[in-house]
Amino acid sequence: ALVKLVRNAGADEVHLVLTADKLMSICPLGVDMYTYRELIAARHNGDIEGIRAEIGANSVIYNTLERQIASTGRPANEFCTGCWTGKYPISAAQKLADEKRKEFELEILR
């Protein structure tokens, strides 16, 4: 919707540059992202061209998780990166995310 608004305002080109990496997994630990269907990167299996086409931008550029973490000056092991990697520090969260991922994969195969 944002890209469309910018184009309707007269932009010839729209380039989306994001300060974060692609969110590939849900967050069962409190952030309000509970289904994979909500996550554009998950719906396109991380494919930038598919994301770009869906939103209608000329280009889409994501930061990398490594650069995100490096920008904090803190060690990577101090962060939960499950939303990006699908690997969670708590087994119950991992189990729920894995179950939701399987449901999502079955849903897109239909």
Brief descriptors of the model:
6 helices, two-stranded parallel ribbon, mainly alpha
**Radius of gyration over all CA atoms, rounded:** 16 Å
Write down the overall mean pLDDT.
Answer: 94
Q: Between the first and last Cα atoms, what is the distance in angstroms?
A: 27 Å
Q: Can you count the helices?
A: 6
Quantity of strands, as a count: 2
The major beta sheet can be summarized as: 2 strands, parallel
Say what oligomer this is. single chain
User: Which sequence of strands runs across the widest sheet?
Assistant: 1-2
What characteristic shape results from the CA principal axes?
Answer: flat
Helix content bin: 40-55%
Low-confidence stretches: none
Structural class: mainly alpha
Sketch the topology as an H/E string, one letter per element: HEHHEHHH
Strand-residue fraction? 5-15%
Brief rundown of the structure:
The protein has 6 helices and 2 strands; from the N terminus they run αβααβααα. The chain has helices at 2-8, 40-43, 48-55, 65-70, 82-85, 91-109; strands at 15-17, 59-61.
Set down the secondary structure blueprint.
Elements: H1 2-8, E1 15-17, H2 40-43, H3 48-55, E2 59-61, H4 65-70, H5 82-85, H6 91-109
Parallel strand pairs: 1-2
Q: What this model shows, in words?
A:
12% of the residues are buried. A two-stranded parallel sheet has the order 1-2. It contains six helices and two strands; from the N terminus they run αβααβααα. The two termini are 27 Å apart. The chain has helices at residues 2-8, 40-43, 48-55, 65-70, 82-85, 91-109; strands spanning 15-17, 59-61. The protein is mostly helical. The mean pLDDT is 94.
